[in-house]
Amino acid sequence: LLVLLILIHYRKCISMNESIPTDGVYMSDSNTNVKDAPAFHENPYCKALNNAKDIQFDHADVEGNAQNGPVVRLSFALLFDALGTCLKDESSVLLLYSLVHGNCDFQEYVLVRTDLDTLLMPILEMLYNASRKTSNQIYMLLIILLILSQDSTFNASVHKLVLPSVPWYQERLMHQTSLGSLMVVILIRTIKYNLSKLRDVYLHTNCLAILANMGPHAHRLSAYASQRLVSLFDMLSRKYAKLAELKNDKALKVMSDQMEADIISDDTSTELHIYTDFLRIVLEIINAILTYALPRNPEVVYAIL
After folding, report:
1. CA–CA separation, 279 vs 288, rounded Å?
2. For position 30, what pLDDT does the model report?
């Protein structure tokens, strides 16, 4: 597995005197200027993994397009089950990310599976134990969930799949809760952990984006998940109010020294702006539930009231 990961993620940089192919440019940052961005040769192993097909389908391409060269064929069913049993290993998570991100066929296969808990339960358990994970591991898990949550079928499926119990969740007994409700609880728990320990804006944004994708499709969200969602809004609004008050107080105290006032104002303004964005997204999530899924979520209404 480690050798495979090295092969598919290795990129040989194009030297300055070589021509840059239009399809071989890797942007490390979306804001990077194209001229300054490092350019890499096409990786044949990565291309092979991204074009891999399910062995159960006919060899002829569905759309009738001829494939360029030989195509790797493997059993998506066996791969799905194998990944579900070993996702506690970081290298397995990276392979799942590579497949979900790069291989459209595998991503579609995952989205139509009815037993999504096979993959999601190990991922949620790792996020539950976020304090034992590195920030890179947490990112990888969240990005996998973010990619999957962009599909409406996935969002509908997770809310309809009921779990008899969640043995690794220690704070309270969770019997007959939906996978969607558990996802909401774990994502909010990750946000609260990040607020107190990591304080990483990008991690927050990913968690909230997943919740925003799930919002319109929420179906019978549990009382506990609803209460956690409202408590998240409460916590963020209190933090926002405290920052706004702090900004006003500091501005008044140092009005005599204009330069110092500007520095303090800038620092507080940045954090205030971040919390404004967080609050806006949480309000959008609640609004999406109330707008598109109100009759199916009485517990959310009760928690808000």
Report:
1. 14
2. 43
Lookup result for tokens 């319109």:
216
Nearest to 131 by CA among 82, 78, 54, 198: 198
What are the sequence ranges of the domains in the chain? 156-304
- Give the position of tokens 């990944």: 83
- Can you read off the two tokens belonging to residue 131? 């304090």
Residues 6+ apart with CB under 8 A from 5: 91, 94, 95, 98
89-101 in b/e form (b: 16+ CB < 10 A) is eeebbbbbbbbbe
Question: What residue type is 136 in one-letter code?
Answer: N
What distance in Å separates the CA atoms of residue 70 and residue 230, rounded to the nearest whole number? 53
Helices 179-193 & 201-214 angle (0-180, nearest 10): 160
In angstroms, rounded to a whole number, what is the distance separating the alpha carbons of residues 290 and 218? 10
Per-position b or e across 268-284, b if 16+ CB within 10 A of its CB: beebbeebeebbebbee
Q: Which residue stretches of 113-222 are H helix? A: 117-128, 135-149, 152-160, 179-193, 201-214
DSSP-assigned letter for residue 305: -
The owner of tokens 């964005």 is 277
Mean pLDDT of each 10-residue bin along the chain, 305 residues long: 94 63 43 60 90 79 55 93 92 94 94 93 94 88 96 93 93 92 96 83 91 94 96 93 83 61 64 90 95 94 95
Q: Of 251, 242, 249, whose CA–CA distance to 271 is shortest?
A: 242
For the chain, how big is the Rg over CA atoms in Å? Answer: 23
